[in-house]
Amino acid sequence: MVWAGILGDVWRTEERGLSVSIYTLGTLLGPTIGPLCGGFITQYSSWRWTFYAISIANACIQIVATIFFRETFAPVLLARKAAKLRKETGNTELHTKWERPDRTFKKLALTALVRPFLLLTTQPILQVLAIYIAYVFGLMYLALSTFPILWTTQYGLSISIAGLNYLALAIGYIIGTQVCTRLLDVVYKRLKETRGNGTGIPEYRLPLLLPGALMVPIGLFWYGWSAQAHLHWIMPDIGIAIFGAGVKFSLQCTQLYALDVYPTYAASASAASMFVRSLAGFAFPLFAPYLYQSLQFGWGNTVLALIALVIGVPAPFFLWYFGPSLRKRSTYAAGH
């Protein structure tokens, strides 16, 4: 959750596209590379080593992060500077505008816990972003939950070889990253020059959300009907790759837009969005067996794709036209 605050602190608005792209690619590759490795570990070792490997990797990452990560949040850095000046000068009146005598650790912790839910319940912009990206994430984990059934049962592959099909989703993410990253900052700078007279606004992040919102249902259609027709294995993989590229476009655009709208509260906005999408990622795979048992892959994915069209396509238009007025009325958005 802290990633949004760190990236917002370190990079300027025109330069955030690459940094957000690299981060979001990592979060998406995990659920695809993990099952691939897990399939080989389970087949040639034991299921216990899947947990051992995860624990070892997490421990290494935590150690590296603890050693090399530094504070980037401006209010904290200024508070430290003010404390140093108070000590050097003896002037106890030196405080930053964020420092208050009544701000105890308990109050700060309570604020940090409450603010994400406050943003989620009071900010229409964040609500639209959270609902759409939660649905996309739910679809992603739902699609991942169908892989074992499709590739081992319908296509008759072994667990380890079936896991190789997760690479199709990873390839879609990587292609989406390459295309979206190259275009996002270019589009932002172009719109800033042509429409903003040199001044950028968060809505300049939204144009690429539309192709992402279209690729998601297109990939679902392709994947579902080619799987139901039992076509060559490359056909469902192409569909899931298109879907993956759409997920990457959607996630990157929405995350950058939220980061630009709520730069001071980027971590809280990210936490709110992550809370909703995590619930969707948990809930969607639960009804996957019932959905595909009743409608099979073709019609099941068709229903999901139509819902994605209804939710995803209007989102960039709504935020483009109403985003500026919603930001002006918000006490959390940039400029307030």
Q: N-to-C SSE series? A: HHHHHHHHHHHH
Helical content band? over 70%
Mean pLDDT: 84
Main pleated sheet: none
- How many DSSP helices? 12
Straight-line distance between termini: 23 Å
- Computed CA radius of gyration, to the nearest angstrom: 22 Å
Low-confidence stretches: none
How is this structure best summarized?
By secondary structure, the chain is mainly α. It contains twelve helices and no strands.
Q: What does this protein look like?
A:
There is one protein chain. This protein is mainly alpha-helical and 336 residues long. 80% of the residues lie in helices and 0% in strands. It contains twelve helices and no strands. It has helices at 3-10, 16-44, 48-68, 74-89, 105-122, 124-154, 159-163, 166-194, 209-228, 234-261, 266-312, 314-329. It is globular, with a radius of gyration of 22 Å. It starts with a helix and ends in a 7-residue tail after the last helix. The relative contact order is 0.15. Residues 1-327 form the Major facilitator superfamily (MFS) profile domain. It is found in: Membrane. Keywords: Membrane, Transmembrane, Transmembrane helix. Its main location: membrane. GO terms for molecular function: transmembrane transporter activity.
